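#structure-requests
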Amino acid sequence: MTRILGIDLGTTNSCVAVLDEKGQPKTLAAPDGERTTPSWVAWAPNQEVTVGTRARRQAVTNASATVHGAKRLIGRKVNADDVAHFAKLAPFRIVAAPNGDAWVRIHGQPVSPQEVAAHILRQLRSIAESALGEPVTRAVVTVPAYFDDAQRQATRDAGMIAGLDVVRILNEPTAAALAYGAHRTGAGRRIIAVFDLGGGTFDISIMSVENGIFEVLATGGDSALGGEDWDRAMLERIVDDVFDQYRVDLTQVPMALSRLREACEQAKKTLSVDRETTLQLPFLANDQHGAPINYERTITRDEVEQLTKGLLERVTAPCERALADAGLDASDIEEVLLVGGMTRWPAVQDRVEQIFAKKPSKGANPDEVVALGAAAYAGILAGEADDAALLDVTPHDIGIKVGDTGFSVIIPRNSMLPVRARKLFATSATDQKFVSIELYQGESSDVTKNRKLGQVVLDDLPAGPPGSVRVELVITVDVESIVGVTAKELKSGKETSITIRPSGGLSQREIVEIINRRRNEHSVANYLPSDGGNVVRVTTREQAAVKPPRDDS
């Protein structure tokens, strides 16, 4: 069997790792020596696709066809508040798919976030194959612990499009704790917290570690909070500043937005070390008279902290709720592990210390630790290591719609995985032939504020008076937090036919169509150009990784 990769599919950067000959996880570098790959994908007018550093380099000149932050769109609806906020300052167009999912429009054609993510995954696979000198088709892919079922399923679909057999979807905080070696430090039971603030998502996990067993006690987070929001706050301030000075709206100038976004991200990195920096953007745009706008401005860390005060405050409530769900106080936490590039920001570290009343640990590279943990877990799945076991929990309540807006919880959040729950239903009309049940995931008692997983239709019920036919609905959540549903009619004991009509995502038919389209585009070059960028294509091996399509109509 080929090796199993560990992949951190990040909002800003992605990373791939594998176990070395000594059984230790190591990140793999691209030919240019970089161990992280920017999560950027660009399309040329001839549909040639570039990924990573090379895509990011040409973002200014090809802004409307260069996509970044696709992780914030994957498995999301276009009308979600945070998607709409993201779209407002994105240089590329975000559009609605026929099922309401958020897609991007490239050269007039709609492209799903799954396909964007697949290009990144294919690049990481290419890096691994180049470094290892052998083909690789299996991977453990990490996702934020707070991802819902639709986002997890969409990530798995991206892997399929990339020709990868995703053997496990693993929560990022759990992977990080494994990479930190939390199970090898000290004897007895230890309670740790993993604080993961990346480019686009925030997770907090409280877990117990004892005898090599990681048991997640509670998890929380915000799937629409990350370092890009700090960048956006700075960008919005400068857009307003330019408008006040020159009466020019930079949101209508994609090339200027791309330059400004890159400058803001670099300024944030500088300010994580220094107290102030200078933004210099010559020829940013033209004013109302056609004269060039040469923008220069000094920005301080204090100013950015004031701008992002509200963002920083958003990390507190999930941490407090996770502690409460675990039945613990902050004083019970023995160690706090930092994960994600945004944890380099001093104010974030100060807030973590304030919440947990102790200084957090900084013993690992926050950009690589998740991929290393994924590789370590891949070794466990492959039988190459057996010094740890993971017990995770559900990130959200799962239940059904009751009445017009009610939500009845069947599986509460933070239930140990895998978990199964049953719910009985009785017919309410004479000779009722079917029961229709809507499944949702979320924390609000108002079902309209939760995420619809799908609709379950129970057909072919036997005839009888009201209440005479009882149907048992069984909801299961596996170790990857992916939801499954079965049902049966109790009187006969026969399984009742059910149809799950997903509220979003790609069908198998659409996945195969994407792969066939990519395979037939012969104009693209080989996997890895010498500069470490990537021009991608789909091979017949990827085609073989996809199951035949089913009819989802």
